[in-house]
Hints:
Elements: E1 2-8, H1 18-34, E2 39-41, H2 59-63, H3 76-85, E3 88-96, E4 102-109, E5 115-120, H4 140-143, E6 153-156, E7 159-165, H5 172-179, E8 185-190, H6 203-221, E9 224-229, E10 232-234, E11 237-239, E12 244-246, E13 252-255, E14 262-268, H7 270-277
Parallel strand pairs: 1-2, 2-3, 7-8, 8-9
Antiparallel strand pairs: 1-14, 3-4, 4-5, 6-7, 9-12, 10-11, 12-13
Helix pairs in contact: 1-3, 5-6
The structure holds 4-methylsulfanyl-2-ureido-butyric acid.
Residues 44, 125-126, 138, 166-167, 170, 190-192, 196 line the site of 4-methylsulfanyl-2-ureido-butyric acid.
Amino acid sequence: TLGLAVAxxxxxxxxxxxxxxxxxLIEMLREAKSRGSEVVVFPELALTTFFPRYWMEDEEELDRxxxxxxxxxxxxxxFDEERKLGMGFYLGYAELTPEGxxxxxxxxxxxxxxxxxxxxxxxxxxxxxxxxxAPFQHLEKKYFEVGDLGFRVxxxxxxxxxxxxxxxxxxxxxxxxxxxxSAEVVVLGYNTPSINIYWNEPIHLRTSxxxxxxxxxxxxxxxxxxxxxxxxSEDGFHMIGSSVIVAPTGEIVARALSEEDEVIAVKADLxxxxxxxx
Length: 278
Ligand code: CDT
């Protein structure tokens, strides 16, 4: 079994500092440890507000949302705490490379504090133009390049872990490519606005398509799936919650109740996936 936790985050507002946010992550890391977890999944772009909702032209204004190194002094306390506790984690953040390239990125960190895997988001949703009539923007296509690392599986302590980010979870090939590499667990973070700016989508569908994607793909690929939301109302812009852990049976075995910081945790029996694969 693997002690698997999802640390859902409530809103991160524009005015919140990295120090505030890292403090919240550390709190949840400690709670997960106290509940027997070994690995914690944090959301996509966990360190900042979901900034692709804002049109920005000034590079300096934009740069403050990106990490130029990982770890870095502002995030180091999270790495220190996880090593002290002997926990692994998955974390999503905006990456600015030394060459000036921008990616929507996630990392896997093992119990010893080593970054054992990196993923750069492939399915970037949204647009790159300024949609003046929309209630907010979804500028992932402006602020990020398409990821160049592929979908890969990493040995994290004793578990085969595959990574993806948010919109990737809606596409069958994401999980299939990972399960063909013998993934046992697929981890992901997401920021899903409750309103779809493209069409008048009933709000309940935002959650039901999220859950259907995770449950069907967990079952069809015989993997555990752990999905962490950033949710609630960030400066008035609402995003869905419903962070879940799904077994390879397709069943939801833990689900967040709130739209706030909340840890959900299970003992994931990895043999269930093995049985299905066989
Ligand atoms: N962050 C992210 O990928 N969100 C998308 C919203 C798409 S609507 C333009 C999602 O699939 O949840």
